[in-house]
Amino acid sequence: MSVFINHFEQRRRAVLVTAAAAWGLLLSGAAFAQAAPAQIRIGFQKSAVNLVILKQQGALEKRFPNARVQWVEFPAGPQLLEALSVGSLEFGLTGDSPPVFAQAAGKELRYVGAEPSKPRSSAILVKQEAPIRTLADLKGRKIALQKGSSAHYLLLRAVEKAGLAWSDITPIYLPPSDARAAFERGSVDAWAIWDPYYAATELDIAPRVLATGEGLSGNNSFYLASTALAEKHPQALQVLFEELTRADAYVQSHRKEAAQLISDFSGLGLATVHRFIERRPPSPVAPLTPAITAEQQRVADAFAALGLIPRQVKVAEIVWQPPGATKVAQQATGGTTR
């Protein structure tokens, strides 16, 4: 099974790279001559490595010299998407669960891009001395998590794998900073969290990792945009994806310098930054493939089945299709779009 999963991940990453390159060819020339939007307000989190690098390097300000580029930091994806849906942002990055909750609530937004999955970048943590040794031991326990975040889906899958019902645990919904405080003082028994909060906690208090996303959740990262940006400025998205992919290549080839940029921005210690980017795979950015859309639909279906969202949603309905998307997908997947 692990060999199959590794092969699947390698193939999916290749699809993302191929799609990005092909789309770049499709949108070259006249498309780049079109006017950029007057402003691009970008929502990001400390875990958004590619966006943080762009911010620190000032790359987008150079590519969009006539646009007002603004950067707004959020503690987690749900808060970011709320801002996007009410018109306070044009673009942002979240994990897999926030867009599902936003779509189910009728929020106006579009999936426009994705990075490869990062299953090792999220985890369920317990104290070293805790009696919880297996996922089944979570029964009857209080578990801290950000509602509607990628950690929500990780915990859902962990409960399912343990053969438990969601009602067998007590979820305690807290933003990351409050969740860590509750975890450290023993107010909760476990904590489902993602990097860099995961890495910082590992180094500071050495908790025990009960499970990571491996075998449970792909922990996918999605770029979302306002409908106006997606429909009126597709060339701006191409520039964004080019620069994000370039930023990722910089992280891979200049690890020390990238870690310093991230540390300078976030206030995180260098050891923490190195810890979380070392388990982050290469993450080029490209439009969603049919396979990624289908995987995200499984996330949505899991929340709907448990009644954790108010209605079922069809992810594909809000997936933006770039120019030439069908042709690109077929080329990238060897002629199929399964």
Automatic annotation (TrEMBL):
Residues making up the signal peptide according to the UniProt record: 1-33
Native species: Rivibacter subsaxonicus
Annotated function: Part of a binding-protein-dependent transport system for aliphatic sulfonates. Putative binding protein.
Transmembrane regions listed in the UniProt entry: none
Lineage start: Bacteria, Pseudomonadati, Pseudomonadota, Betaproteobacteria, Burkholderiales
A Pfam family of this chain: NMT1
Subcellular location: Periplasm
Keywords recorded for this protein, A-Z: Signal, Transport
Family the entry assigns: Belongs to the bacterial solute-binding protein SsuA/TauA family.
Protein name (Swiss-Prot/TrEMBL): Putative aliphatic sulfonates-binding protein
Ranges where the Solute-binding protein family 3/N-terminal domain occurs: 39-258
MF (Gene Ontology): ATPase-coupled transmembrane transporter activity
NCBIfam families, per the entry: PRK11553.1, SsuA_fam
Chief location: periplasm
GO CC terms, sorted: membrane; periplasmic space
Top-rank taxon: Bacteria
